[in-house]
Amino acid sequence: MERVISVNMHGIVEVLIYGNSSFEVSVKLLNFLLWVYTKKLMIQQCLSTFDKMIRNGLLPDVKNCNRILRILRDKDLVGKAREVYKKMGEFGIKPTIVTYNTLLDLYCKEGEVQQALDLLLEMQRQWVCSE
After folding, report:
1. What single string gives the DSSP state of each residue in 73-113?
2. What residue range is the signal peptide (predicted)?
């Protein structure tokens, strides 16, 4: 008979980041947990893990940031999406076309036309400067 144990997923993040674990915590492992949270639409856990990662110098990859932005868009959480996008910039996580498209969709969906226009200008500046 196979033994099954119940694990509090968010407790794992606490142990991995703050615990005195005897193994090295990798960004890949935390990115995997972020992926699980986004797939299960666990918004609070996504945001909490994202915040803990960046506060501890463990930067999530842009794909997971985009996944977080998409679930925030789908739940009409504009303010939270803005916060995630701002933190991405503060910690050097470069937005992709997917990032911009998700935010543009959210801003237009919410009637925030000026925000969408400002984001378009930011996109133009980024691509002009990167070429």
Report:
1. HHTT-HHHHHHHHHHHHHTT----HHHHHHHHHHHHHTT-H
2. none
Answer whether residue 31 is part of any domain: yes
The span from the CA of 94 to the CA of 61, in Å, is 9
The closest alpha carbon to 126, from 83, 84, 96, 88, belongs to 96
Domain assignment present for residue 4? The answer is no
**70-125 pLDDT tens trace:** 999 999 999 999 999 999 999 999 999 999 999 999 999 999 999 999 999 999 88
Contacts of 83 (CB under 8 A, 6+ apart): none
74 part of a folded domain: yes
What whole-number distance in Å separates Cα of residue 34 and Cα of residue 37?
5
pTM here is 0.78
In a domain, 3, yes or no: no
* Count of domains observed in the chain: 1
